[in-house]
Structure prediction request, 422 residues.
Amino acid sequence: MAVDFAIHYLPAATQAGGVGGDWFDVIPLSGARVALVVGDVVGHGIAAAAAMGRVRTAVRTLADIDLPSDELLKHLDDVVLRLTARQHTDHFDQMDRGCTGVTCLYAVCDPVSRCCNLARAGHPPPLVITPGGHAELIDLPPNQPLGVVNVSFEAREVQLPEGSLLSLYTDGLVESREWDIDDGIRRLRKVLDEGAPMLEVLCDRALTSLLPSAPADDVALLIARTHALDASQVAVWQLPSNPAIVATARQQATEQLTSWGLGDAAFSIEVAVSELVTNAIRYGREPIKLRLIRVVHDDTCDLSCEVADGSDTAPHLRRADPQDEGGRGLFMVAQLTDHWGCRYTPPTAERSFGLKCLPRHRHSLINRGGETTRPDGCDPVPPFSSSPSDADAPRAQQTASLFARKVTQLFLSVIRVIGNRQ
Prediction:
């Protein structure tokens, strides 16, 4: 993941049992990026908690389609406005009462570019500590809270060297009866300047130093340490808009995977590169770029493949009729990978396909069960069973996977022959 993080939540000491509207989230995104989210729904009690759950779910849904931080807050603002408007209808739900006054801070960290894109809606500004530096506020436009007025939001992008600490928090941590929010932020900066060997220890120290024994408001604190991917973990190729380049792109991707020791993933990536580069050449426009990203974990390795072009249209997965000659490329990509999707990269309005696959055989991916997610509009791969007993299920899965692999290999061979003839 692009960051290491620690999260602490402390409920308020109120008659409502401390239930409040503060929330946090860490959401993996395509291209090895990660989104950090902290928000606050005004109030306490079950209504505020229910509203928080709705808003948090909306954030995850919007993050899944890879919106920029300012656009995500705009769509989230529309969601909160609709929930708030229900209070004035005949179908008013008591759970909607908590959707008045919502703040949020959304940040996306990219370990490849080492940039962090942030936007906030009425939320306290984040703090950042660069290696060897001091805690400083990131200058972000405050914008209006969500659901107050229909306005646009402004984002900022900052460079974060590897090892920087990013602190996101709610106002309950820095505001109290004893001091205002500015004094609280200064106290938090002092604690962060002291540092700690572990993020969990730093979170504990911040809560202990700033909060009384019985806080009047619930508190959420998220501290993340950024990582960076060096050139040995990223491979990029600029491609001309020429169908003959597809074979070269496949060869370059396969050679790169071999050098990384990920030969088991070569087949899936080779098919994906063929389909995605062909799609970009046929329907997009230059510049066309192919990028492979390798992220090594303790016992696994995530591999992302992205193809970007200068078009402003988005591809869509569709179900091809038996008599159709095309329309199966994205379906093949979806079947051979764990995830796939599309995102826009301003200001060039590029579209890019991102996918991740583990360096294992395809039947291992199928057997991951609930951990495997599928693209929007596609059902999960159903379990195979030839009898009421599931004893033969693994063999059936492997057989079906082997059959699909052989069919795809035949299709790829045809593509290669056509490419060589051209």
In short: The domain at 3-226 is CATH 3.60.40.10 (Phosphatase 2c; domain 1). The chain has two domains: 3-226, 231-421. The mean pLDDT is 79. Residues 393-421 form the longest helix (29 residues).
